[in-house]
Amino acid sequence: MVVVLDNIRSFNNVGSVFRTSDAFLIEKIVLCGITAVPPHPDIHKTALGAENSVEWCYYENTVDAIVALQQAGYYVYAVEQVKGSMLLNDLSLNGHNKYAVVLGNEVKGVQQQVVDKCDGCIEIPQFGTKHSLNVSVTAGLVIWDMFKQLYGGC
Questions:
Q1: Counting Cβ atoms within 10 Å, is residue 47 exposed (0-12), middle (13-18) or buried (19+)?
Q2: What domains are there in the chain, each with its CATH number?
Q3: Could you say which residues of the chain have pLDDT below 70?
Q4: Cα dihedral 17/40/67/84 (nearest 10)
Q5: How many contiguous H segments (helices) and E segments (strands) does the chain have?
Q6: pLDDT at 154
Q7: DSSP label at residue 108
Q8: Is residue 103 within 8 Å of 6, Cβ to Cβ?
Q9: For 62, which of 79, 86, 101, 114 is 20 to 30 Å away at the CA?
Q10: How many Cβ atoms sit within 10 Å of the Cβ of residue 14?
Q11: From CA 46, how far away is CA 140, in angstroms rounded?
């Protein structure tokens, strides 16, 4: 599984995604646009060294990253609240396929042109008055759910 970060503003969020990715054997993180790249002390503060244990690469344009992943055989899902998105708990993965998940900017979400290029969109069910989560929290929920399906939660 690959994680794509689309224009993430916060160094701490980037570091947190690295740390979660290390915990759940993410193959690679693709950092795109304005997303900060290691090495950086503010990424390290929350990554605690995971920026050195998880492979990463950088693309200036997120759409280019999505196209490259799809050409490499990945099914790419954006985490975004859009018409036609599926609830995370309805997502069914096949352990023989490769998957990538795109997480978007803290304010604007995943860019529309990126959403349009993805194979589908995933939405986390939410029941409170707020209908958004911090991107690093979102990453943890989605990565864990996908990991359980692909690896049996072991």
A1: buried
A2: 2-151 (3.40.1280.10)
A3: 153-154
A4: 40
A5: 6, 7
A6: 57
A7: T
A8: yes
A9: 86
A10: 27
A11: 14
